[in-house]
């Protein structure tokens, strides 16, 4: 087999269950995200789904997990990953390191147990595994005669703590060098509370999300005007507006927009 190679364990035929394995050589691999499947979506082989979240791939050689951000479809299977025997570190940005235990507490309670002692033991394990990385700084993963590997997190502008991942690989025996970039989820420019993502300087291989790749979003000014119109209509009718939104990311943006409208 020629290295590096990439195997997708989720978010291939759908948009949830993000999980990608970078096989760097015959004995070293890196996992990028390990997310929950939602709705009718499944793993590529069809063995894992929303009702069966057990890890359905080998963990041999996987040295670390990198979490691009803490939305459940990117980190929700981490309890199952640990249950399957994963012993490596969980690498993420510094803000994500604060949020991840909160999100995974919910995932554990929903999928495993609400027993408080078990929850506390699990959260202690999670906190021990987390390695918080600053943005824009290289972190060495592997330093071996046949492979040098390092990663760097860059701001993705999606939610607080989100990052895209740059992986630099160097094979000393052949002199070959490769840079692989995993986008995670990318935010749009001009977000009110997050800096816009900047494109990577280079990439030999790019793995990029395409959730909204087939549509154009309206601009933020038009969206805010539409929200204001809905609110005014509800107020004039003495009605109620229900807005379903992710608690991390969308809710903060909505609160910001509402404050500006008021």
UniProtKB/TrEMBL annotation:
<dbReference type="InterPro" id="IPR001279">
    <property type="entry name" value="Metallo-B-lactamas"/>
</dbReference>
<dbReference type="InterPro" id="IPR036866">
    <property type="entry name" value="RibonucZ/Hydroxyglut_hydro"/>
</dbReference>
<protein>
    <submittedName>
        <fullName>MBL fold metallo-hydrolase</fullName>
    </submittedName>
</protein>
<feature type="domain" description="Metallo-beta-lactamase">
    <location>
        <begin position="16"/>
        <end position="233"/>
    </location>
</feature>
<dbReference type="Pfam" id="PF00753">
    <property type="entry name" value="Lactamase_B"/>
</dbReference>
<dbReference type="InterPro" id="IPR050698">
    <property type="entry name" value="MBL"/>
</dbReference>
<dbReference type="GO" id="GO:0004521">
    <property type="term" value="F:RNA endonuclease activity"/>
</dbReference>
